[in-house]
Design a protein that fits this description.
The complex is a heterodimer of chains A (785) and B (203). Chain A is mostly helical. The chains are: A mainly alpha (785), B alpha/beta (203). Chain A: Keywords: Coiled coil, Golgi apparatus, Membrane, Protein transport, Transport.
């Protein structure tokens, strides 16, 4: 080993620098050294080589130091050699074992597979044998069971036979004992037919006797014989008979009901309710049996049969209702009353009240019942169709919709509601008319009785329509109410406002009786002799103000009504009534109603404008014109005289105060506030007009400034509107009239205006400046504005 | 109102005998569908479609009414707020055409006097079964001063045109109306005609 090791270390010292192009080779090549001729260069090269040599020597030393470590490692490696040979042998042995095991496993598993196949075949054979045995057992069992009248057992056997694999039967017929089996099969088929007949007969007998346990007993047997449809139809027949009997009884009771009975007014609705409750109870009671013995998804069939009976009974009840309550004749009468305007033949709306309530109740009950049926059938289909395709599900949904939409119950109710809407509309219109004609006003009240009455009626009618649970009926009545309020009732208020606000007491005093005569005259000309209107101007005034209040309250009430209806409707919708678009339909109809509120607001605005221009303006204008008779071209003496005896503004304020007291008492705060707003605008405009017609001295300007301040201070106390804005122009004019000299305006104008926004145009500024008699027109012209 | 994403809103109500195809016309226009074997409409149906006409968004609220007699009092309540009525008959059904005067009487009685009425003869895809000639219908509509159109909801013929033309006319009427209203600001105490369109026009 030693020489080997030496050989191993040999390359170390052999790798000398400079010999090859290795990293340690000198920076100076041999050729370069040989080409050197200069001594200095040579010395330099020499010293560099010496340095290199030193470096190389150090590296060599470092390498030699490692020698012993490397030798030790080599020794260890050599020791491991024999062990490696052992491992190789072991590994080969292991590989051999593994491949052997693998083959073995393969063999075993293929045998297991064969066994498995054999086992399956065996099972199948046993199954077949069992089936054949079962078949035999059924053949024997059926006979015995039938002999013992154990129909459940017999049906179970038949059921077993029916659920057998048909190929098994074929197979057994092909066997050695084919002949016997054939004969037995025939017996079995005969037994099946016999059982079917027996069960049907027994069911019919039980049904005739009203023997529910027996009916249910045989009902359960039908599906075992594969007669699902027949069983359901038979059973429904029995249930329908129950329904019919009960309904007959109830109808008899109705006919015997005393008219003084507490429920007499809604007896037909009650009868329908009993009918629906009866059917619902039947569904509730028998659904479990149907689901257990017939499987889910069969409820629809049962209900389809039941609905026929329900329709038949509904027809009877509704026919009786129509006859007893004279429904059609009342409808006819309403129609006639609507066509002809003569009041003599009109049907009294109050008489319609009970019947309208009853019809809505009837419809509500029907909707409730139909919703119950719908929910039940949908739930049953959901279970039954859990695995079904989307198409089947839709098909089923379509069947159900068709059943619910086309049943006589739905159609009859739609017809009744159709009549109801017309009658309810009539009821509403006539009652509203009555409320209008009986309108009364109590002193101290802002509004008159008709507003509350009319909204009470409208609310009542819509509420009743809502109570029918029919969304279309509700929407129709909302529409009719909108029409009633927008056209008829708004017209009433509009006509009242059109009579105008009569001349004021002040003017009355001047004109004497003439105004009253005039009013009377105009009323006569219009062909209306409204005694209320002419009894006195005071009353006419009051009537106008009350009407304004009425209009405002109407506008408010409509919004309140809308909100109330919204919440009522959302309650109805959350209970699942109405189709998918119900919400959108109601919203649209209600928004139409809300729009009417704005029309009342417009009317209020018109009325206020009228009041402002006929009552306030003719008063205020002369008062303001008095300003012209007070000279503002004054000197010190007059100025102090004005100070002591106010020439204009105080009286003006007193007059305004007096005038507005009347309105403040008679109008609602909101309207009054709007009116004062209109009045202040009017004052601002009129005052500006007279101002521009006056002339001012320096002190006159000061006087006007004082007057304006008093006026603004007063008006600020009577209204919540911002006065400053309305009087901005006048205030600026006052500022101009108070200037010391013309050019002083430039301290406030243009870049010097500061926070002030001028509302006057340059031309207007000049115009106002010109009102000062002491300002020279040349100075004004020279101004650069 | 500006929050709503439309410039105009119009209410269109479809009326006419049962089975003339009102629902199919509406479905074709709003959903692009022709659902065969449609059951009779119960009460009223309600659809919305927003169309763009000359860059203006027009929201059409379409009320599809039941043709059957027993729903008449419900459908009548919608006439008054309607901006337009589409009076529909079936060209293969003489009876549905003969009932038109009756429908016109209803319109006269219940609708606003500014309502636009369009006469529509539907089902022109069933040309071989036609019972009402185009000429008769055209003469009738002319006498009644109605716009007239024949459609097929099934083949989608003229359906789009019907509603879009109507929307155009409603827009121009609405424009005229606001113009008239703006010019003559009503005097207080004088009959201010409440424009039925003011509530719809948000321009």
């Amino acid at each position: 080993m030693r020489p080997k090791m030496a050989a191993a270390t040999a390359p170390g010292p052999k790798a000398l620098p400079g010999e090859s192009g290795g990293p340690a080779s000198s920076a100076l090549s041999m050729e370069r050294i040989q080409s050197l001729t200069d001594l200095a260069d040579l010395e330099a090269a020499y010293s560099r080589l010496c340095e290199e040599e030193k470096v190389v020597q150090e590296e060599l030393d470092a390498l030699l130091e490692q020698q012993s470590t490397i030798e030790n490692k080599m020794v260890a490696l050599h020791r491991m050699g024999p062990n490696l040979q052992l491992i190789e042998g072991d590994a080969q042995q292991l590989a051999g074992m593994i491949s052997f095991t693998c083959n073995l496993a393969e063999n075993v598993s293929s045998k297991v597979r064969q066994l498995d196949l054999a086992k399956n075949r065996l099972y199948q054979a046993i199954q077949r044998a069992d089936d054949i045995l079962d078949l035999k057992f059924c053949m024997d069992g059926v006979q015995t069971a039938l002999r013992n009248e154990d129909y459940e057992q017999a049906a179970a056997h038949i059921h077993r036979y029916l659920s057998l694999d048909k190929s098994v039967i074929e197979l057994s017929r092909q066997g050695k004992e084919g002949g016997i089996i054939d004969a037995n099969l025939k017996l079995l088929q005969e037994a099946e037919q016999r059982l079917k007949t027996i069960v049907t007969e027994k069911f019919d007998t039980a049904m005739k006797q009203g023997d529910l346990p027996q009916v249910e007993r045989f009902f359960k047997i039908f599906p075992l014989l594969g007669l699902h449809e027949e069983g359901l139809s038979k059973f429904s027949e029995y249930l329908c008979k129950q329904v019919a009997n009960k309904a007959e009884e109830n109808l008899q009771l109705v006919m015997g009901t005393d008219m003084s009975d507490r429920r007499a007014a809604v007896i037909f609705a009650d009868t329908l309710t009993l009918l629906f409750e009866g059917i619902a109870r039947i569904v509730e009671t028998h659904q479990p049996i149907v689901e257990t013995y017939y499987g889910p998804g069969r409820l629809y069939t049962l209900i389809k049969h039941l609905q026929v009976e329900c329709d038949r009974q509904v027809e009877k009840v509704v026919d009786k209702f129509i006859k007893e309550r004279d429904y059609h004749r009342q409808f006819q009468q309403v129609q006639n009353s609507m066509m002809r305007s003569s009041s003599a033949e009109k049907i009294e709306p109050r008489e319609l009240d009970p019947i309208l309530t009853e019809v809505t109740l009837m419809n509500a009950r029907s909707e409730l019942y139909l919703r119950f049926i719908k929910r039940r059938v949908i739930a049953d289909f959901e279970v039954g169709d859990a695995m079904a395709s989307e198409e089947v599900k839709q098909e089923h949904q379509k069947y159900l919709d068709k059943l619910l939409n086309n049943c006589l119950l739905s159609c009859t109710m739609q017809e009744l509601i159709g009549y109801y809407i017309t009658m309810e509309e009539y009821f509403m219109r006539e009652t509203v008319n009555k409320a209008v004609s009986m309108d009364s006003y109590e002193k101290g009240q802002l509004t008159s009785s008709m507003v509350d009455d009319v909204f009470y009626i409208v609310k009542k009618c819509i509420g009743r329509a809502l109570s029918s649970s029919s969304i279309d009926c509700l929407c129709a009545m909302i529409n009719h109410s909108t029409t009633e309020l927008e056209s008829d009732f708004r017209e009433v208020l509009y006509n009242k406002l059109k009579q105008g606000f009569p001349a004021t007491t002040f003017q009355d005093f001047q004109r004497g009786v003439t105004s009253a005569v005039n009013i009377m005259h105009s009323s006569l000309q219009q062909g209306k002799f409204d005694t209320k209107g002419i009894e006195s101007t005071d009353e006419a005034k009051q009537s106008f103000l009350v009407t304004l209040n009425n209009v405002e309250v109407c506008s408010e009430n409509i919004m309140t009504l809308k909100k109330t209806l919204e919440s009522d409707c959302s309650k109805l919708l959350s209970q699942g009534f109405g189709g998918e678009q119900a919400q959108a339909k109601i919203e649209s109809c209600l928004s139409d109603m809300a729009a009417v509120s704005n029309k009342f607001r417009d009317l209020l605005q018109e009325g206020l404008n009228e009041l402002n221009s006929t009552a306030i303006k003719p008063q205020v204008k002369p008062w303001i014109n008095l300003f012209l008779s007070v000279s503002h071209n004054i000197e010190e003496e007059e100025f102090s005289d004005y100070e002591a005896n106010d020439p204009w503004v105080q009286q003006f304020i007193v007059n305004l105060e007096q005038q507005m007291t009347e309105f403040k008492a008679g109008l609602s705060p909101v309207i009054y506030d709007t009116l004062t707003g209109l009045m202040t605008s009017l004052i601002a405009i009129e005052l500006e007009k007279v101002l521009l017609k006056s002339t001012f001295s320096r002190l006159g300007g000061l006087q006007f400034d004082k007057e304006l301040r008093s006026l603004i201070a007063y008006l600020t106390t009577v209204t919540t509107w911002t006065i400053r804005d309305k009087f901005a122009r006048l205030s600026q004019m006052a500022t101009i009239l108070n200037l010391e000299r013309v050019t002083e305006i430039l301290d406030y104008w243009g870049p010097n205006s500061g926070p002030l926004t001028w509302r006057l145009t340059p031309a207007e500024v000049r115009q106002v400046l010109a009102l000062r008699i002491d300002f020279r027109s040349e100075d004004i012209k020279r101004l650069r504005l | 109102m500006s929050m709503e994403d439309y410039d105009f809103l119009f209410k269109i109500v479809l009326i006419g005998n049962a089975g003339v195809g009102k629902t199919c016309l509406v479905r074709r226009f709003t959903q692009g569908l022709f659902p065969p074997g449609q059951g009779a409409t119960i009460g009223v149906d309600f659809m919305i479609k927003t169309v763009e006409i000359n860059g203006e968004k027009v929201k059409l609220q379409i009320w599809d009414t039941a043709g059957q007699e027993r729903f008449r009092s419900i459908t009548q309540s919608y006439y008054r707020s309607a901006n337009a009525l589409i009076l529909t008959y079936d060209i293969t059904c003489e009876e549905s055409f003969r009932c038109l005067p009756e429908w016109l009487r209803e319109i006269e009685q219940y609708a606003s006097n500014k309502v636009i009425t369009v006469l529509v003869g539907n089902k022109i895809d069933l040309a071989d079964k036609r019972e009402v000639s185009q000429q008769r219908a055209a003469e009738f509509s002319e006498a009644q001063d109605m716009y007239y159109l024949e459609t097929s909801a099934k083949e989608s013929d003229n359906v789009e045109k019907l509603f879009l033309d109507l929307a155009c006319r409603l827009i121009s009427e609405a424009r005229q109306n606001t113009l008239v209203n703006n010019v003559s600001s009503p005097l207080p105490g004088e009959g201010k005609s409440i424009s039925y369109l003011t509530c719809c026009n948000f321009n």
